[in-house]
Prior knowledge:
Layout: H1 2-18, H2 66-70, H3 74-79, E1 93-94, H4 110-122, H5 135-144, E2 154-155, E3 161-162, H6 164-170, E4 178-181, H7 193-206, E5 210-213, E6 238-243, E7 256-261, H8 268-281, H9 287-299, H10 302-324, E8 329-332, E9 339-344, H11 355-366, E10 368-369, E11 371-372, E12 381-385, H12 390-407, H13 415-419
Parallel strand pairs: 1-10, 4-5, 5-6
Antiparallel strand pairs: 2-3, 6-7, 8-9, 9-12, 11-12
Helix pairs in contact: 4-9, 5-9, 10-12
Amino acid sequence: MAAIATVGYTFMALESLLVIDPYVIQMQDHGSLPSVLDVHVNVTGRSSVLRKVKSRKARWSVRPSEMSNKTFNPIRAIVDNMKVKPNPNKTMIALSIGDPTVFGNLPTDPEVTQAMKDALDSGKFNGYVPSIGCLSSREEVASYYHCPEAPLEAKPEKNWEIDLKQLESLIDEKTVCLIVNNPSNPCGSVFSRRHLQKILAVAARQCVPILADEIYGDMVFSDSKFEPLATLSSNVPILSCGGLAKRWLVPGWRMGWILIHDRRDIFGNEIRDGLVKLSQRILGPCTLVQGALKSILCRTPQEFYHNTLSFLKSNADLCFGALAAIPGLRPIRPSGAMYLMVGIEMEHFPEFENDVEFTEQLVAEQSVHCLPATCFEYPNFFRVVITVPEVMMLEACSRIQEFCEQHYHCAEGSQEECDK
Ligand SMILES: Cc1ncc(COP(=O)(O)O)c(C=O)c1O
């Protein structure tokens, strides 16, 4: 993502130079040379005569572009401003970043790394390729996902299902698409086929396309089933986003894709051209990974996916069980992905204003870093990442327990509850 931002920034900087009319390069006075070398770059097609202009007062004034100023990542905005220091007597446990590579306990499959080595050794993937990806890589992704059928309220007690009436009431002239993230970060929820069909019905009724973020597709525990949204509709146009980052446990490889499901040709050329243009604005996917893609998709053994999921399921159960026993916390059992959301009964923790303060103090006292769910505009919750090694998961839960016990207060009028 950083690379994308950099390219965008350079692009904007260039654009803003071009609108200065004219711009002047000033040089130092060297004897016979004129004190000011006037170089006029006329971008409007008017006068192009070289002439002296008032000298520019030389001073450094290098400013960030408007685009960089307007770029906002809510997670970074909150987390980077958390200034607390961890407790020096406790080793740090970071349950905040959804990166399965951090602790080295969840390596990708050897088939995957072998495919990368083969792509590298072949020497065929070192150059520039089309920004939308090589045809062969795109064909691999299309055939792998081929399917013959070709700020919303969601509540944990309803498996984080969307309130469809509210959804429909929020759609207006300005609505350009519905974004559906399933399986979900941060909730770890997996929508049922029935619920997805209802979302599709709203989209069809309102003629709004869907952007389906399915990066955690097929990362679901055995008691749930992932239904790709596009398999359930033949008329709603859907852009489905996926990639290697999560299921193959290699987020640093920066390989993602968008599948276009548009059986009625509603997107037409305009949207397709727009996607191509966007792919040209940012860096295309890593060519080496494109070379390895076919093997990664087709040869990764089922056992690898199975082992990853049973590890995540087991950690989810451990974490849920441990946190459910802590007064003042309300963990929500996840069905997939790599996260677990935990409600904080704020009335029992009156010294903290909100989830940000709660999680800050948790770092300060216990060196356990969880992400305040305000980052997801879902206050009074925090998110736990469940990819850490099991012992660390248990240690983190026991420190969270110690923290809660130290800060828990009975809410007024609920003495009975506290006596339990
Ligand atoms: C919902 C969702 N979509 C997509 C991604 C992939 O993001 P990136 O391309 O930055 O790895 C993530 C990563 O955490 C995610 O949680």
